Amino acid sequence: MIGRPVDPKAVELARSKGWRVDPVAFPYEITSTDSETFLLHAATTSCDCRWTVHFTWSSGGRTGTLTVPSDGGSFRVVSGAGARRCSLVEPACG
């Protein structure tokens, strides 16, 4: 898996904050003095999808899996295909 920046505006905003935006190759390694933030972007054109992220880790001979979200829930992404469009500035939805 390789991460990749998708939205040019998000990339520029991240760069302006000093964040690294180059694609990340997995598996990925950090140390106890490093920290890392991952921005996940999900999109679909045809489904109502629920998903979770599983980070498998190892440290000092120990291993585990971190599931996000950790409360047993899931993320959700829904296609806009076939949805009615509405606007606050136009009088009717259609």
Please, could you describe this protein's structure?
With 94 residues, the protein is mainly β. The protein has one domain. Helices cover 10% and strands 23% of the residues. The protein contains one helix and four strands; from the N terminus they run H-E-E-E-E. Strands 1-4 form a two-stranded antiparallel ribbon. A two-stranded antiparallel sheet has the order 2-3. Strand 2 (53-59) and strand 3 (62-68) form a beta hairpin. The chain is extended. The mean pLDDT is 79.
Short description:
With 94 residues, the chain is mainly β. The chain is built from one helix and four strands; from the N terminus they run H-E-E-E-E.
Overall mean confidence score, pLDDT: 79
List the secondary-structure elements in sequence, H or E: HEEEE
What percent strand? 15-25%
Molecular shape: extended
Q: In percent, how helical is the residue content?
A: under 10%
Any descriptors?
two-stranded antiparallel ribbon; two-stranded antiparallel sheet; mainly beta; 1 helix; 94 residues
List the helices and strands and how they pair.
Blueprint: H1 8-16, E1 48-51, E2 53-59, E3 62-68, E4 75-78
Antiparallel strand pairs: 1-4, 2-3
